[in-house]
Input
Amino acid sequence: MRSTARITGMARNTIDKLLVELGAACSQYQDTTLRNLPCRRLQVEEVWAFCYCKEKNVREGMADGSGDAWTWAVIDADTKLVPCWVVGKRTPETCEAFVSDMASRVTERVQLTSDGLAMYYKAIVKAFGEDIDYAKLVKTYGLDPEAGRRYSPAICTSCEKKSVIGDPNPDQISTSYIERQNLTMRMGMRRFTRLTNAFSKKLENHAAAISLHMMYYNFARVHQTLKTTPAVAAGVADHVWTIEEIVGLLDSK
Output
């Protein structure tokens, strides 16, 4: 934001206001457009960030939304489209809202893979009933012997595939694509970078940044494997969007 202010000569508050308004427009457009999707293989996961301060430092009187801000996202393994996401706490209520929104957007019976988070089961049964093939990919992590000397993620020592509902294809039980999408988010949005000093001060700004990222990812960023955008691959767009078209959503709003 400071770099943009220096380049354009505009005030940071003006840039902030523009991004929040455009983020809301992108969210509204995607909420309306990403419907009746013929997705068949979905993967879900949650990625952590924080607003204003980390959860352990939240004190009474701080603004609503301070602390942990989890982004719950789903990806279509075939088109790489991200049909929906929810920003909130890592609670059963947020999980149910996320899964319910996801269920409302698909028209086919899907195979869904999640990590080992227990609260997914109840939310999936409530949203899909038995009309789904649901499996878990449960990973076991061990301690890094060098963790005391350097920052690194824990070592994955084993993976177990568990069929939970229906008859999921064992060969398609995977969370690789959604984990790669999490990396795309961390690389594309500074506020998601590990050990960063760049973080949102308001949950509204955090949500707007994610909406802008998803709009660009779904509609304007050409996927190297697909050779087009996820939106075109999924049939919800007929061309690769430009930045000007995304900004133009402000006029339609």
About this structure: The mean pLDDT is 91. Residues 157 and 249 are 46 Å apart (CA to CA). The longest helix spans residues 12-33. The chain has one domain: 2-252.
